[in-house]
Amino acid sequence: MAAWARAVRGLLLDISGVLNDSGGEGGGVPIAGSAEAVRRIKASGLKLRFCTNETQATREKFVKKLQGLGFDISVAEVTAPAPAACRLLKERGLRPHLLVHDDLVPEFADIDKTNPNCVVIGDAAENFSYANLNEAFRVLIGLEKPVLISLGKGRYYKETDGLKLDVGAYMKALEYACDVQAEVVGKPAKAFFESALAEMGVPPEQAIMIGDDIVSDVGGAQQCGMRAVQVRTGKYRYITHKPRKTALLAGMSERRQLMGFPGLLSCSAPISTACT
Amino acid sequence: MAARRALKAVLVDLSGTLHVEDSAVPGAQEALKRLRAAPLTIRFVTNTTKECKKDLLERLTKLGFDIAEHEIFTSLTAARNLLEQKQVRPLLLVDEKALPDFTGIATDDPNAVVIGLAPEHFHYEMMNKAFRLILDGAPLIAIHKARYFKKKNGLALGPGPFVAGLEYATDIKATVVGKPEKTFFLEALRGTSCAPEEAVMIGDDCRDDVGGAQNAGMRGILVRTGKYRPADENKINPPPYLTCESFPEAVEHILEHLL
To answer: Measured between CB atoms, does B168 come within 8 Å of chain A?
Structure first.
């Protein structure tokens, strides 16, 4: 059995770029072999949780789209930034001005949004207009203690029609304008991975994170004590720098790396014998 | 220690130095005439993202200043010069009123991005267009990186935040061409056959005018008009070569001591 797969009891899976490429009306395009790979993991007895920074829709909505693409996934199996942000807002008595995608707003239904004392920014896509950004900026600059909460900090993501600016770029814009530092809820924040692991019931040293983003997925997971696999699908193709060495990639053969997530699972005999 | 080289060029800031809004600084027109009688090259320099040279010239001529268009150098000119040097075709995210300063530059099939203050262009679709060009290797040129500015109904985002966002997304640094960047001052002297050590800058903004010029190797004269506030001269190191009342006094000093 490959050393890197020893004592693995659970997998955290990124969604966009691993299971599917987002974009278009139907939720995007599934990545070949991924749906089957998910079924095989579930059949193997390994624990599984989807750990995503998706903020363009509620969990109900994007899970439904993925089910439509043939994936065996349910809302209960998903760790996403909006619900994590809601917990934080309630804990700290924060009332947000939201700069998010229209389809995410329902996640904040039972949050008090009157007289905002912070700004929450998500992957707002077309809602990143000058007017909307200016409004968020004015809320922040008018606060004695400006609090900016960013759902993830990705630089860009891949849709079927090309690369698009992610929440991180606009988080930076507001940070620069107001001379503040955002708090990140979502990958690669440690707390986010820790809550996913807690929800799965597996400690970090017995879990593997699989993703396409070297910073948000791989880097963030490693900093929690997990092992991480970077797949060469999704936005990987567009990255020009070499990924930092991961414990896993060092042990994997070239063939496995190229085949991505389904490829990893098709050589998964070591994994299935590792689980108890 | 080597003797100071003789003065050959004078750079003059516009707003706050030659005029304050629609009024000329008292005595400034005559002072300029006296300066012109000396063997000096003169350039009028300013940061702007939406006033083309013709508009500036019109305003100054109306105030009684004797100025030629080719003597005006703005942050827009600096951007244009950079585009010509690099031989690139820009995606111009600038105010419509600034476009005349880019006449003659090809903009089809862009391979460069220029950002000024242009809220009408800062929507998601256009930002993505700029982002993809930069990822493909297009240089990102910022007219300046102001964070925000004051409007009648409150504060509004400047170009700086959008430049910062694109820098983060692409992991590329923008080239900022306006004051107080060193290149702005060096570019202003291009074509004058004067070295920075042979030039002096007169302005009311201690950091952007004087500090920037001195950092480029020139001498800087701070005038106490426009946005000047008491003790501004203590905000830069080294301090201004000279701090004086206004443009006419600066000219007197130059004619008496620097020629």
So the answer is: yes
